[in-house]
Amino acid sequence: MPHDEFRPEDLYTGPIDLTGMTALGEEESDTEKVEISYDEQRYPARPRRLRPRDQFRGGSVRRIKTDPRTANGTNPSYVEWLVRQSMLKDADVLARQLAGQPAMWRNPYARPDARRAITTTDVWFTAYPLSLITRPGQSFLAALGDEELWSAFERVGINAIHTGPVKRAGGIAGWLDTPSVDGHFDRISTEIDPAFGTEEEFRALCDTADSHGGSVIDDIVPGHTGKGADFRLAEMGFKDYPGIYHMVEIVPEDWGLLPDVPDGVDSVNLSPASEQELEERGYIIGALQRVIFYTPGVKETNWSATAPVIGPDGITRRWVYLHYFKQGQPSINWLDPTFAGMRLVIGDALHSLGELGTSALRLDANGFLGVEKSAGGPAWSEGHPLSHAANHIIAGMVRKVGGFTFQELNLTIEDIRDTAAVGADLSYDFIGRPGYHHALATGQTEFLRLALTTSIELGVQPVQLVHGMQNHDELTYELVHWATRHGDDQYRFRGQEISGGQLAELVRAELTETLTGTADYNRVFTQNGIACTTTSLIAATRGIARLDEIAETDVPAIRAAHLLLCAYNAWQPGVFALSGWDLVGMLTIPSDDVADLIAAGDTRWIERGAHDLLNVDPQATRSAAGMPRGRALYGPLPAQLEDPESFASRLASILDLRREYGIATASQVDIPEVAHAGMLVLVHRLDEGNPEADAPIQVTVLNFSSEPTEGTVRSEQLVPDSEVVDAASGETVGRVDDLRSFAVSLPAYGAMFLMLKPLQSDAG
After folding, report:
1. Under 8 Å between Cβ of 465 and 426
2. 3-state SS string over 623-668?
3. Rounded CA gap, 500 and 483, in Å?
4. For residues 667 and 669, what is the distance between their CA atoms, to the nearest angstrom?
5. What are residue 474's phi and psi, to 5 degrees?
6. Which of 309, 298, 332, 291 is closest to 250 using CA atoms?
7. Is the pLDDT reported for residue 348 higher than 70?
């Protein structure tokens, strides 16, 4: 969307120091005169080789006259316009507002505290701005602040909204905005994107949430920005801006090592050969441990080269810059001497918490904040200590002002553990999520049980995790823990020894075959996972080949499996999160309806169909952002909440048990072996994290099979002679025998929340 018409007088709301432009080459000086030293007096006598001028590269200052409409570094008005909308400039202003204030010392901040965060809010609705159908003329943020929506959320048991990214994103080309390349995760401003609403509407949303006992969670992206004002100023070599990014200036005599940049684009991805050549010349650290979003001929390395860019000093530069993700998402440098990247990210966080009124922040892609050259292999880029340090700084700052953070970190379990030790209060559950999808796809829980037990053994408790259903991303199946660090380790699986690498390959292959082999409505997303909704995933596991084959008679079984997955995620410690796509039972969009969006390989757009939670615009075929409306199997929330058998009403019953018994802050103490391949048993102490407490035992029993099952639950944590009570019905279903076991019977996709009542003593 274009900016408002440019008027030079709009730029001057106060002077901005553009040193090197209006007074090029002049040094900033204090107003107070300082007496010169003896050495300075004798300066003219120094040998020529010691004069500072001879240590500088580039020669004399260039003074340039330019057209005021020019959109490059030769135009002071253009540079000042960029500075005024840059995130770094906003960060400096926000930091000064809080510096030296007593509010900065009122909260503990050194250590993460998952249970404190959970007691603030434990059931989250994860929104996606582009996909929500609103009332005609109503903005996304106004829709999220709707009293009717929050009343419905209260009835279901939802007490927080994670808004998703709503600040301006994409890039700037000349005087114009360019669109986002990654669903608004390529942020370029602290300003709310007008496409989603206003800052006033965001604040009103926070107030409405608070009146219903809820909270609002925002995003920050500490790993990268889009190509907005900050990046354009960095390309110009202006002040601290190059320090924001992992970018390296290439001297003109080596421009021959760089690819040509065609007209119409501003950068080109480096080939592996160019990457290696630049590494050998000492410019960059070369190949990283993996290339996320690898696409042959499009993104073969994590480095791209810019076109020539002229700066305010008249020097034309070319750069090579790092981007873990897409080319339009340059990576932030957390250890540059200017600390400009750190300042930018902290400023963005303070804006969300202090200016908008949020209670928490998601840290997106925060595991890639440190890179370092390695000897004899790819550069160290995952699990780097700098990532831990940077996360500690971000999370500590957020805790210092009274909020909390959660991280979306798809790395090994050890990396999640180590980062969480000092960083974010909570982590997204990339451990169990592929496992429970695999359990449903195969009807076998062995891999899921292996993942859960491995997590506990390595020090990541489920209370530290956000157990999510569908969100805006694909069903991730990279299985980084097994495929990388533990690729050569041996595991017992299906009666034989198998390496971690082989295990990852096997699970990926089975997920891909089951979910996309015959089903034409789910799609593989590069090498990362499968684009699908929860309901389309379930439909594929039930052997349905085409979207139009899903009939009303299929809905009860799909709903039952969906509720099973809700029970798995909600009936264990930690946060439970689900999306609008889950609440209304959304299927994927036919590929032809989003052909332009998936043309470059980003198949995730098929899972982001527009949906109407409140039935506010039944005739709408698209969201306000233009996403096509998908097919919803369950219907809007108001109608569902009038039907006790609906998905939303039965979900409310699941969440009632979760809240009544305090499972969210419990301790998981056992994941026992099972008598039937499709069963999963989770044993918890309802102790709120106090191992010394005399706490009751709770047992979650689930059947991931599409057939009824019977089996025995056995655990050393069970007390003999305890009565086993179904918490939902109040009925006794058995008694723990001397072998610390009891029998259980479940329907297809069945789930039971069981409480143990020890035998009462007759004494006294």
Report:
1. yes
2. CCCCCEECCECCCCHHHHHCCCCCHHHHHHHHHHHHHHHCHHHCEE
3. 6
4. 6
5. -70, 165
6. 309
7. yes
What confidence category does residue 383 fall into, taking pLDDT thresholds of 50, 70 and 90? confident
- CA-based nearest residue to 709, from 673, 751, 754, 745: 745
Cα distance between residue 515 and residue 634, in whole Å: 21
Q: Which two tokens stand for residue 348?
A: 């963005």
Q: Using the Cα atoms of residue 148, residue 149, residue 150 and residue 155 in order, give the sign of their dihedral.
A: positive
Mean pLDDT taken over the chain? 90
| Length of the chain in terms of residues written | 764
Q: CA of 447: how far to CAs of 189, 370, 433, 503, 715, in Å?
A: 42, 32, 11, 9, 19
- The answer to whether the beta carbons of residues 400 and 104 sit under 8 Å apart is yes
Predicted confidence at residue 368, as pLDDT, reads 87
Question: In angstroms, rounded to a whole number, what is the distance separating the alpha carbons of residues 90 and 500?
Answer: 46
Of 568, 626, 559, 616, nearest in space to 586 by CA: 559
- Scored b (16 or more CB within 10 A) or e, 20-59 reads bbeeeeeeeeeeeeeeeeeeeeeeeeeeeeeeeeeeeeee
CA 174 from centre of chain: 30
Query: Which pLDDT tens digit goes with each residue over 234-268?
Result: 999 999 999 999 999 999 999 999 999 999 999 99
Cα torsion angle, 381, 385, 388, 391, sign = negative
Structure tokens at 40: 């300075």
Please list, in sequence order, all residues whose beta carbon lies within 8 angstroms of the beta carbon of residue 96, skipping any fewer than 6 positions away: none
Give the pLDDT of residue 45. 42
CA distance 601 to 597: 8
Question: What are the backbone dihedrals phi and psi of residue 363, each rounded to the nearest 5 degrees, phi first?
Answer: -95, 110
- pLDDT at site 67: 65
**Cα–Cα distance, 126 to 468 (Å, whole number):** 9
Average pLDDT over every residue of 464-493: 94
Q: What is the pLDDT of residues 4-58, one digit of tens each?
A: 433 333 433 343 444 334 333 333 333 334 444 334 444 444 344 433 433 334 4
Q: In this structure, what token pair is assigned to residue 667? A: 């301790």
Higher-scoring residue by pLDDT: 177, 764: 177
pTM for the full model?
A: 0.85
Q: How far is Cα 128 from Cα 111, in angstroms, rounded to an integer?
A: 30
Amino acid at 442: T
Tokens representing 562? 């969906």
